[in-house]
Amino acid sequence: MLPFSKTSARRENKTFGVNSVGLERRGFSSERIRALQKAFRLLLVSKLNTTQAVEKMRELEGEDVALLVGFIQRSERGVIK
């Protein structure tokens, strides 16, 4: 599962986006959450493949986005989208 995400695990696993409620509870600012939302839109909603989305995500600012990009790049088996 992707960090900071809401994921469903019925028959097919699917990521739905940022878990903004959980992040707010953990003290994330609205700016940090917006940066993650932009990154997740690139990854999940755009018509880019994962490699292309990661390249665009690198252009975004923020530690959290960098952590997400690093997680995706270190994944040996891919990520659920």
Give structural notes.
The termini are close together. Helix 2 runs antiparallel to helix 3. The chain has a two-stranded antiparallel sheet with strand order 1-2. The protein has 4 helices and 2 strands; from the N terminus they run E-E-H-H-H-H. The protein is α+β, with helices and mostly antiparallel strands and 81 residues long. It has a single domain, classed as Udp N-acetylglucosamine O-acyltransferase, C-terminal domain (Udp N-acetylglucosamine O-acyltransferase, Domain 2), CATH 1.20.1180.
Strand content: 5-15%
Order of neighbouring strands in the sheet with most strands: 1-2
**Helix/strand/pairing class, anyone?**
alpha+beta
Which stretches are low in confidence, meaning pLDDT under 50 for 5 or more residues running?
Answer: none
Could you give the topology of this structure?
Blueprint: E1 5-9, E2 13-18, H1 20-25, H2 30-44, H3 50-57, H4 63-74
Antiparallel strand pairs: 1-2
Kindly list the characteristics that best describe this protein:
81 residues, alpha+beta, Udp N-acetylglucosamine O-acyltransferase, Domain 2, globular
In a nutshell, what does this entry contain?
With about 80 residues, the protein is α+β, with helices and mostly antiparallel strands. The protein has helices at about 20-25, 30-45, 50-55, 65-75, and strands at about 5-10, 15-20. Helix 2 (about 30-45) packs antiparallel against helix 3 (about 50-55).
